[in-house]
Amino acid sequence: MRELGIASLPRNYELVYRFLNSSNATLIREFAALGRRPTQLQLDAIGRKFLPHHHHVSATEQSLEGVFDEMLKMIRMFKQDQTKLAKYSNLLGETSARMSAKGAVSLDFLDDLNKVLSSATVDTMEKSKVIIQQMVERASELARLKSELEEYKRLSSIDPVTRLSNRRAFDKRLAAIYDGPQTATAHALLVADIDHFKAFNDTYGHQVGDRVLSATAAMMTKTLGSETFLARTGGEEFAVILDNTSVEEARTTAERLRVVIESTPLIDHNGGVDRGRITISLGLCMAADATGPDNLYNRADAMLYDAKKAGRNQVKTYTPKLKRMLGLLRR
After folding, report:
1. Which residues are catalytic?
2. Is the separation of the CB atoms in 15 and 51 below 8 Å?
3. Tens of pLDDT, residues 76-113
4. CB 313 within 8 A of CB 281
């Protein structure tokens, strides 16, 4: 983005991500045609055309500006209240000095003094009530804006087509596996890819292609359960992180996913047309057999490539034995 001169805005990140990972030829062509240093208006025009949740000014940016404005208002109110209290304090000090300077205090003087103090006290209390009410309203507004920001933060980690976690959320979750010395031992990574998806997209169009992605995501979610981390990492590729599992259990899970998707007919609900069946290829690697998140992903992805090369619709697993063989080949 820096090289292309594109501003680091959330909506621009999403657009560039879709450009780099999309199979939509029209999106790729129109984005590439912008060249270097496109204007924000040009980027937003493409975003509104291809991204269902794209806004001219993102909700996150609006809420951040809202929080900033509300904080400024609260600071101004504090300053106003502080100024009024200082004036009241000065008035009390002046009144005390006048009383000390008077030798004999007359009733008229005390009456005048009482009126001044009463008026100043009532005025200060009324203004303080207004400020307190405004502060309560500002605090309520800040709470609402905070809630909105949390929601937008959640949405920024979700793929708009499948409603699964997106690549950004996946990278963060994958890195967390290696946060502690013992955390990687019982984790597995599955990388799955829909077979022949480009041909399917070219035959039926991108709208049907998106429905295929959504249907695949729904089948995977139903099979794995909502507690399992599942993400769409780009194009027709999905990733699954399995916790507290062995290689045998992970392989069984991968095979179960493959069978469920293979055995489910793809019905177009708009016309009831049977589009046939789809299949997926999967690559598996245990976190303990990798040195870090990038290495883990690369090894699982290499197994996915092997599954594709071997005929698709199957699971390939990275094993320590295979690791030694690859080491020998590199010598």
Report:
1. 236
2. yes
3. 665 566 566 566 666 666 666 665 665 555 555 555 66
4. yes
The per-residue pLDDT for range 212-268, each reduced to its tens digit, is 899 999 999 999 998 899 999 988 999 999 999 999 999 999 999 999 999 988 776
Amino acid, single-letter form, for residue 242 = L
Are the beta carbons of 174 and 297 closer than 8 angstroms? yes
Quote the tokens at residue 91: 């008035």
Q: What domains, with CATH codes, occur in the chain?
A: 10-50 (no CATH), 59-155 (1.10.287), 167-330 (3.30.70.270)
pTM across the whole model: 0.57
Please tell me the distance from the alpha carbon of residue 175 to that of residue 8, in angstroms, as a whole number: 23
